[in-house]
Amino acid sequence: MNEGLIALAVAIIGASAGAIGIIAEFVTNRIADKPSRHDIAIGKRLDEIEQADRKRDEHAELIDDALKALLFDKIARLHAETVEQGLPVPTEIKTRVEASYGAYRKLGGNGVGKHYRDEMLEAHARETQP
Questions:
Q1: Domain extent for 109
Q2: Do the domain assignments include residue 100?
Q3: What are the residues whose beta carbons fall under 8 Å from the beta carbon of 125, sequence distance 6 or more?
Q4: Could you read off the pLDDT of 65-81 as tens digits, one per residue?
C-alpha cells in the first residue's frame, strides 16, 4: 500500500477518535448533569461580565447623584441671590434656572428644587442690565 494513503488513514482514524472522545465527554457530562470545562469557562466569563456591569451601573449612579447635587446647588444659589433677598429675577437667570431644573428633574430631582424654580419664575422679572 502507498505510504501516503496509510498516513491519511491513520490521520482520519486519529481525528475520528478525538472527535468521538469529545462527543463522549459531552454526552457523559450531560447524562451526569455535570458541566463541561467549556461550560465552566463560559460561566466564569459571564460572572466577570455581570460584575463589570454592576460596577459600571454603580459608577453611573454615582455620577448622576453628583450631577443632581450640583444642579440643585446652582438652583438654590440663584434662588438665594434673588428671591430670598427680595430682588427681581433677571430674565437671563430665569432662563438658566429653567435649563438647570430641566436636567435636575430628568435625573430624578424634585421637591425643594422645583419650589425654588417656581418661585424664581413667578418673581418679578427684569431685563439683565449691561
A1: 57-126
A2: yes
A3: 88, 89, 90, 91, 94
A4: 999 999 999 999 999 99
